[in-house]
Amino acid sequence: MRYHYYPGCSLHGTAKEYDDSLRSVCKALGVELAEVEGWICCGTSSRISMSPTVGAALPLENLMLVEQAGGGDVLVPCPACLNRFKSVQHDLEEDSALKEKLERTLGRAYEGRVEARHPLDVLVDLVGSDEMRPKLVRSLNGLRVASYYGCVLVRPPETMGYDDYEYPMVMDRLVRTLGGEPIDWSYKTECCGANFALTRTDIVRKLSCDIMVNARDEGAEIICTCCQMCQANLDTRKREIEQEFGVELDLPIVYYSQLIGLAVGLDPGTLGFERHFVDPRPVLREKGIL
Amino acid sequence: MEIQLSRDVIESPFVNEVLGEAKSLVNNCYQCRKCAAGCPVAYEMDYTPAEIMHAVRLGQKDLVLGSKTIWICAACKTCSTRCPQDVEIVKIMDAARRVALREGIKPKVPEAAAFYRSALFTVKNFGRLYEIGLIGRLKLATRDFFKDIGLGLTMFRKGKLSLLPSGWRRGFRVRTILNRIKNEEGAI
Ligand code: SF4
Ligand code: SF4
Q1: Nearest 5°: phi and psi at A144?
Q2: Interior CA angle at A54 toward A78 and A158, to 5°?
Q3: What is the per-residue pLDDT across A44-74, written as a single tens digit (0 to 9) for each?
Q4: Ligand 2: which residues within 6 Å by Cβ?
Q5: Strands (E), A6-150
Q6: Per-residue pLDDT at A7 exceeds 70
Q7: Strand (E) positions, A85-196?
Q8: CATH fold of A2-118, please?
Q9: Cysteine-rich domain: which residues (chain A) (predicted)?
Q10: What is the longest distance spanned by two Cα atoms in chain A?
Q11: What value does the CA radius of gyration of chain A take, rounded to a whole number of Å?
């Protein structure tokens, strides 16, 4: 199996452990990832632009690069990038004038032979398949996991293709397959404060606090996420949150790719746990997973 | 404030510009305020999303373009997803923000604007968002040099911040695309 791969800016920077663990897991499962040659920013940087065209041209340029490289599925681990790609594709289908305009700007035609997908959607089926079952050599031993999806993986549902957008289950199913226990909780798709990570950190602290407190109260031992912005906002602000709100939160925030990595028996030392602010290893050890 | 609701207001250039760009109707809004109830950052806004929708309908240009709301919106899309009347709240808000920029109205939440500007700056230069460049630029813009220094150092120690931006050549491609848009539309 071979997929195009668009890592996006943060997976080459602050979220390197997401990139690393995803690549190792794909390799272990026999999935080949071909990084899109010459990829650029997905267009989320256009929020300050006076022109609506900028936010459409940048993602389309990337989709065109994928099409040039043969087209087909491209895996996009960052939900914000994925959302940009799917939105522009959606807009092009509805607006042929926009399509023409963008093709002129980018100097290329686009046939639409590309589908952007989140790796989670691909991996959940793969890991759950009968042929992969023997590869799951380590169980999560009933680890109680809160699956946290964040905002834009599932919204807007007509673009992102989620029916259960208020209460998605795809990551929960994955956790169950890996031997963990998905918990029921209320903040699955609440916002972490995303873009305010560096500026209005007061907003990030409040939203992240609410999310983590609910997960803890519902009995989670760990939070599993599919978005590097959610991971960073929840993980890096923990100590400040504890001080500001007088709560105690010992919740590590891991990626689904790291959990799959454990299950398929990868060396935990290669999964990047040491790069998190709240070290997940103690609870993993306590549960007999490490 | 007394508002005379006339054809001139409903079809004012402002209302047409915002709704045309958002490709959305706003008159379907029946002010149920579901959008406001579910908005995670409504508590930091000066007007709720429902109020902004109503103000757009009433052609209240200064109120909308000068609001904190259009800058505080985190684009989580909860509001548009839940609106029973299919009002494209986020797209309307995005369009309003662009109109405000085009008209040179000072952003009511300057640090949010500074962040977006710094992000776009690094993309123009490197083709991608380059985090240390972004942080440096942001600090210059906000003059808040000590914010999160400790956090930054920990991130650096954990290998989360790379010093060299990847792909200088991509910056050229991004600038080419942006210049073409600028030539066609006059401004980006
Ligand atoms: S949810 Fe929709 S109809 Fe209700 S107030 Fe908001 S925009 Fe109006
Ligand atoms: S998209 Fe903006 S206005 Fe709508 S709910 Fe989210 S933060 Fe609030």
Answers
A1: -85, 110
A2: 50
A3: 887 888 899 999 999 999 999 999 999 999 9
A4: B 38-41, 49, 73-79, 89-90
A5: 32-35, 72-75, 114-117, 144-148
A6: yes
A7: 114-117, 144-148, 181-182
A8: Glutathione S-transferase Yfyf (Class Pi); Chain A, domain 2 (1.20.1050)
A9: 4-85, 145-235
A10: 59
A11: 19
Q: Is A223:A183 a contact under the CB 8 Å cutoff?
A: no
Domains, chain B, ordered by start: 13-102 (1.10.1060.10), 110-185 (no CATH)
CATH of domain A120-286: 3.40.50.11810
CB A161 within 8 A of CB A87: no
Q: ipTM higher than 0.90?
A: yes
Contact A54 B178 (CB under 8 A): yes
Whether A42 and A80 have beta carbons less than 8 Å apart is answered as yes
Residues of chain A found within 8 Å of residue B96, distances taken between Cβ atoms: none
Domain locations in chain A?
A: 2-118, 120-286
Give the CA dihedral A35, A37, A41, A42, nearest 10 degrees.
Answer: -60
Place of tokens 């230069």: B125
pLDDT at A49: 85
- Nearest neighbour of B177 by CB, restricted to A105, A201, A207: A105
The CA distance from A272 to A275, in Å, is 6
Q: Is B172 on the interface with A (CB under 8 A)?
A: no
pLDDT beyond 60 at B1: no
pLDDT (0 to 100) of residue B121: 78
B164, two tokens: 């060299």
- Chain centre distance of CA A253: 13
Per-residue confidence (pLDDT) for residue B159, from 0 to 100: 61
Distance between CA atoms of B51 and A74, rounded to whole angstroms? 40
Quick check: A195 contacting B, CB < 8 Å? Answer: yes
Q: Judging by beta carbons within 10 Å of its beta carbon (0-12, 13-18, 19+), is residue A115 exposed, middle or buried?
A: middle
**CA-proximal residue: ligand 2, atom 6 (nearest):** B76
Chain B partners of A106 at a C-beta cutoff of 8 Å?
177
Mean of pLDDT values over A101-118? 96
Percentage with pLDDT > 90 across chain A: 84
For the CA of B69, the nearest atom of ligand 2: 3
Q: Would the CB atoms of B40 and A207 count as touching at under 8 Å?
A: yes
Nearest residue of chain A to residue B160 (CA atoms):
A14
